[in-house]
Amino acid sequence: MGENEQIKSLFQRVCYDDSIQAYNELYIALCTRLIHFSASIVSSFHLAEEIVSDVFISLWQKRRDMSHVENPVVYLYVSTKNLSLNTLQQQKRHQHHSLDALNADMLVIAPEAESGMVSAEVSQKIERAIRSLPTRCQLIFRLIKQDRLSYREVATLLNISTKTVDAQLTIAVKKISQAIRFDLSDETAQTYLRQDS
């Protein structure tokens, strides 16, 4: 069972069976990704943990009405995004906030050197290349490559077209490929940066 099917199955067990065990497993499966995502909006891991916790509490309270949700991953990301932006607005009442003001440092999730595909040194080069991208481009790259969302899921989450997602990802992949082209064989680079739509 793929990760998305597993998450869907846990989500359905929460909604239909009131399963606390499924609820806990769902939280464990997604909390790190959602906390990083929220922290990139609110610039605070502490606040992001509270926000993600609130998103899950709200899910449990409304679980009976949630059985219609087609894609639980997107639903939870969108809920996290909305609550994060609302929290920011409450903190700074007079400023309008959007995803363009992301704190990119909070998006950093340790690069995948431990997967054995790339060395720690190359992994750092990749991280530097990602950090040099425009913020929205970084976010799209990370959501697809690290959080493993699909193009369509990212488009839904950020209210943009899949064409825009594709264009931004192409920019990111090009820039990162240039940064590491002397360190990896083309084949390894292609595997690491493979675009799965």
Descriptive labels:
197 residues; 2 domains; WH-like_DNA-bd_sf; 0% strand; mainly alpha; sigma factor; transcription; globular; Rna Polymerase Sigma Factor, Chain: A; transcription regulation; Arc Repressor Mutant, subunit A; RNA_pol_sigma70_r4_t2
Descriptive notes:
Residues 124-176 form the RNA polymerase sigma factor 70 region 4 type domain. Belongs to the sigma-70 factor family. ECF subfamily. It comes from Chitinophaga hostae. Keywords: Sigma factor, Transcription, Transcription regulation. Helix content is 67%, strand content 0%. The protein is mostly helical and 197 residues long. It folds into 2 domains: 3-99, Orthogonal Bundle (Rna Polymerase Sigma Factor, Chain: A); 110-192, Winged helix-like DNA-binding domain superfamily/Winged helix DNA-binding domain (Arc Repressor Mutant, subunit A, Orthogonal Bundle), CATH 1.10.10. The protein has helices at residues 3-17, 20-42, 45-61, 72-91, 120-131, 135-145, 151-158, 162-180, 186-192. The protein is built from 9 helices and no strands. α2 packs across α4 (72-91), α3 crosses α4 and α6 packs across α8. The two termini are 19 Å apart.
